[in-house]
Amino acid sequence: MKVEIIKCLQDNYSYLIINEKNQNACVIDPSEAKPIIDFVEKKNINLKFILNTHHHYDHIGGNNELKKKYGVKIVGFINDKDKIPKIDIFVENNQTWMNEDFQAKIIHIPGHTLGHICFYFSKDKIAFTGDTLFSLGCGRIFEGTYEQMFASLNKLKKLPIDTKIYCGHEYTLKNSMFCLQYEKNNKNLEKKIFEIKDKLKNNLPTLPSTIGEELACNIFLRAKNLEDFSKLRDLKDNF
Ligand code: ZN
Ligand code: FE
User: Does the reported pTM lie above 0.70?
Assistant: First the structure.
């Protein structure tokens, strides 16, 4: 299985997961159709599924056009069936969604939205965390509560430390400045910031990160309790 990162809109990332045996693929959170179509056509990829982590427009904006053009099936959380138009396949928390090409565990991670999910491809240890866990940050709490977001991040923290994290936005550098402000002596963070800047300088995505790196550097995963987490989340909203 191969993951391709496709830049969309201002700072969104969509991802293609490709079965290299037959070029069958899923797209995660297509913000817009055009960059996905360009890639798919150029590389002769058979797009089969759209996997949506949540209902925000910058994650589903390309759904309709891709569905029309390729007849792909849209996979989304069961409780989002009225928020994500034309879902074909409903998935639930802890379910394993599978077919002949792909297998992903669904982890319900509410907070940013109530129906937010993570697609965890356990065989390859790859997690698509949408707008819940960012590299060095976490999503804003729009629909859920602090408790829900804190619990959702705790679920993700339990994934194997070498799990690769692919999230919905390129926010890593800005996030790193917030982490640094509150953890000035974190050597791991210092090292990660150096790597981030190097990647960005070369016009490369800062992703994937790993659970291990996030545990070492992401202040939201390092918060000891709900109270600390909530304070940090409020501070970040005004950062
Ligand atoms: Zn969002
Ligand atoms: Fe987003």
Answer: yes
